[in-house]
């Protein structure tokens, strides 16, 4: 008879998000090396053992040699090397005692032990939200990057089980909530505002876990192809509307200027005659030629001559 599995047990299946988290953790492990720190522990341990072995050889005492082996073992178990960018969480009788490091640290044998070593450097976590419904019910895919760091190693290890996984899921759900309150037309104009809003919400969530969020940056927003065509048509229509409005405003200004000019010409006969002479001058300026002047225009020139003489 098969045993039933409890409902609240964690599933053993590995999802795509778990693969992403595991890949990032593996990348973090391969960027640094603890070979030198481990070698230093072995060198110090072997040095103590060699000193006791030399003393046992000089004193011809087996007890000294046994004490030397035990002392070397105890030293190796209670001595740890913490790198500059790391902090070691030390427990005493299973209770949180302190955060030690960096450098060479020592712990009380059989009483204290290092439960975890936390990397305090800046981290980047890529996450995405697929098929997110915006405020106007449009499904989009959003790809973003989260920059965060651990500022309290004790809280990060004691408050949550796996803070890397927790930060990933919190970022994904927060991005979905924020995108659900934005219209599709606002995605391009409010991207920086969305980044800040997601970062602020995540900061409030993760601060109590000893984690601080530096920034969130949206890398890409995928919109369905059929919707892209509609948005493009809408943008073209809006540009054409703006162009027509600008053209109408220009024509209105020109007509007002013509009205003002007509009023000026109506008040001053000489102004109209000067304008007629300007038209004639412009017509023969470049190529020259014979200009036939109507009788009315010739009278205008005679009237202008009288005005100048008078």
TrEMBL record:
<keyword id="KW-1133">Transmembrane helix</keyword>
<dbReference type="InterPro" id="IPR001972">
    <property type="entry name" value="Stomatin_HflK_fam"/>
</dbReference>
<dbReference type="Pfam" id="PF01145">
    <property type="entry name" value="Band_7"/>
</dbReference>
<dbReference type="InterPro" id="IPR036013">
    <property type="entry name" value="Band_7/SPFH_dom_sf"/>
</dbReference>
<feature type="domain" description="Band 7">
    <location>
        <begin position="77"/>
        <end position="235"/>
    </location>
</feature>
<keyword id="KW-0812">Transmembrane</keyword>
<dbReference type="GO" id="GO:0005886">
    <property type="term" value="C:plasma membrane"/>
</dbReference>
<comment type="similarity">
    <text>Belongs to the band 7/mec-2 family.</text>
</comment>
<feature type="transmembrane region" description="Helical">
    <location>
        <begin position="39"/>
        <end position="58"/>
    </location>
</feature>
<feature type="transmembrane region" description="Helical">
    <location>
        <begin position="64"/>
        <end position="83"/>
    </location>
</feature>
<dbReference type="InterPro" id="IPR001107">
    <property type="entry name" value="Band_7"/>
</dbReference>
<dbReference type="GO" id="GO:0098552">
    <property type="term" value="C:side of membrane"/>
</dbReference>
<dbReference type="InterPro" id="IPR043202">
    <property type="entry name" value="Band-7_stomatin-like"/>
</dbReference>
<protein>
    <recommendedName>
        <fullName>Band 7 domain-containing protein</fullName>
    </recommendedName>
</protein>
<keyword id="KW-0472">Membrane</keyword>
